[in-house]
Amino acid sequence: MALAAADALHAVRSDLEPVPVRATSTTSQAGCYRLRHGDPVDLRVSRRHGRVALSFLHELGHFVDHQLGRELGDAWASGEHEAFADWRRAAAGLPSRLPPGVGRSRRRYFNSSKETWARSYAQAVLTRSHDPRLQGVLSGLVELNDVFVWPAGEFEPVAEAVAQTFARLGLLSGPAAVAA
User: Fold this and answer.
1) Percent of the chain surpassing pLDDT 90
2) What 3 state SS string does the chain have?
3) How much is the pLDDT for 18?
């Protein structure tokens, strides 16, 4: 259902073989996008926490970021691609969701463009989804003040910037593509 929601927002052009998604039972991380020599290996998502859909979309966001960045060489698109410029400006206005006291290296990683893109991509897909279960997942996480999502009012301009990024790339799907 989360993949269908992403597909409803955008397409991705790729010459890659399918990239497997593997469920794990790890408690050390919610998910992981793994690479080897610059090529995707798999997306891993732990089923041992309450944000499986969000974690899957977060890792899919990393995959999209990485694939769109390939034309830039070793860069990830979120940090340098021209089509992401408005998203970078909108995302710069979001407050950090990390609690006080988190170390400098963790804070730098959490607030990096590729992590902010992955989190905002996941939330934008859930925000734009018409699936009541996915809407419920997002509402529950916002209500719990989960650090991986922003309150709806703060996030809406960023969700729009995510959609516009896909529009600039010619990858926006569905009715939103007509409006863009």
Assistant:
1) 57
2) CHHHHHHHHECCCCCCCCCCEEEECCCCCCEEEEEECCEEEEEEEECCCCCHHHHHHHHHHHHHHHHHHHHHCCCCHHHHCHHHHHHHHHHHCCCCCCCCCCCHHHHHHHCCHHHHHHHHHHHHHHHHCCCHHHHHHHHHHHHCCCCCCCCHHHHHHHHHHHHHHHHHCCCECHHHHHHC
3) 81
